[in-house]
Amino acid sequence: MKQTDISTIGEFGLIDRISKIIDEQAGSQPLRQNLLIGIADDAAVYKPAAGKVQLFTTDAFVEGIHFDLTYTSFKHLGWKAIVANVSDIAAMCGVPRYATIVLSLPKKISVEMIEEFYHGAVFACEKYSCLIVGGDTTSSLANSMISVAMTGEADESKIKFRKNASPGEYICVTGHLGASLAGLKILKREKERFALSTEQQLFKPNLEPYTPAIEKHLMPKPRLDISGIFAERVNVGAIIDVSDGLASEINHICNNSGTGAVIHEHNIPVDTITQKIASEFNEPPTDYALYGGEEYELLFTIKDDEYARLEKLTNDVTIIGRVTEKEKGIVLIRENGEQEPLKAGGWNHFKS
């Protein structure tokens, strides 16, 4: 790839290139009808759809903390920065609408890298029917930093919160868990192999056998399909997206709802590729699900009769436990029958 120093075109030249990529976004006409002004002014202006309430979320990605450019392309970063926010909107039973992107860039980042980032971001927006309407670019004296803010819309009566869990409800998850951490472990292992290689020019990473897990890490898919069912056809209790690990998300729901929970380890859905990778690292595969992150699946609670209705609409949901009274605590029942407190784990930015 050609590498053009940003200084050769300047901030406004970079903005012009970004604007062209955004303006070429396909399938955005319905969103543009409610957009009065986008990237061309100091602030974007849009009209929310009639009868809707607005949602607002934001996520930050910092190089060295959230991503490593050794094995993460800028196109994947663009995708992931958008879908992390889409997943937050999905967890409220809403739909994404408009996004702004802030980039802080060190000198090592080229014009072409930024264009790749926006191609990835626009690709995600086309997939999940949202539109980039502005942002900012700054220089950085250290690593790259990306921040995306996104608005969404939902019917006020359909919004779901973390605090809505009730004792007796099933606790369920979509998809399978742990693959994102598994994919990250493979990427880190191959980076270490590369660093130790005496012939780096000839080095070929061993990635192909682990493609599903690597894709889960680099290109996660937010579950708008399932949240759409919740918004239209099935009533659920509490919902949260699995971004910091299953154990942490269960604790979030219970703490916000004033409840306890019992989780059965043998019910936690872990894909075969995750089991394979965990075995290679001599680690328990369910720990990948409990304490990994960046899954962007949905964790939710639901009553028995509503679950019966949900079963007829999707086969991509698994019951992993029940909501209990608060005084019973948050408990994990291991496969051998032993019980232990399920403490929050996963990613913690300020853990020593």
Structure description:
By secondary structure, the chain is of the alpha+beta class. The protein contains 11 helices and 13 strands. Strands 8-10-7-11-9-12-13 form a 7-stranded mixed β-sheet, sandwiched between helices. A 4-stranded mixed β-sheet has the order 3-6-4-5. Helix 3 packs parallel to helix 4. The radius of gyration is 21 Å and the shape is globular.
Shape: globular
- In CATH, the architecture of the largest domain is Alpha-Beta Complex
Q: Which percent band covers the strand fraction?
A: 15-25%
Number of H- or I-type helical stretches: 11
CATH superfamily of the largest domain: PurM-like C-terminal domain
Kindly provide the radius of gyration, computed on alpha-carbon positions and rounded to a whole number of angstroms. 21 Å
- Helix content percent band: 25-40%
Give the strand order of the largest sheet, numbering strands 1, 2, ... along the chain: 8-10-7-11-9-12-13
CATH domain fold name of the largest domain: Phosphoribosyl-aminoimidazole Synthetase, Chain A, domain 2
Q: Helix-strand pattern, N to C?
A: HHEEEHEHEEEHHHEHEHHEHEEE
Structural class: alpha+beta
In short:
The protein is of the alpha+beta class and 352 residues long.
